[in-house]
Design brief:
mainly beta, two-stranded antiparallel sheet
Amino acid sequence: MMAMVDAQTGTVYYPPISIDGVGVASLYLPLLTAGLSYPRNPIVDFRLDSRLMIVRATPKQTTQHPSFTYYFVWQDERWSLLRRVPLTEH
């Protein structure tokens, strides 16, 4: 689960991607299916001094479990998707 809260106003913002898809108001992040065989938490990278957030996740649990790296930028009090790149197994 994830939420962003404005420390001054108390306004709650949802993560940019949820188990229901990109841009859906939900606190639940999708799982990352590593190696297409076992679920684990999504990988979220951010810095307090940056508007960029990178999320590695599997948004829909299907037979092929496609996973992606999502690049989001925080602007106008919402997350905007900059790019989505397929994750490949190493």
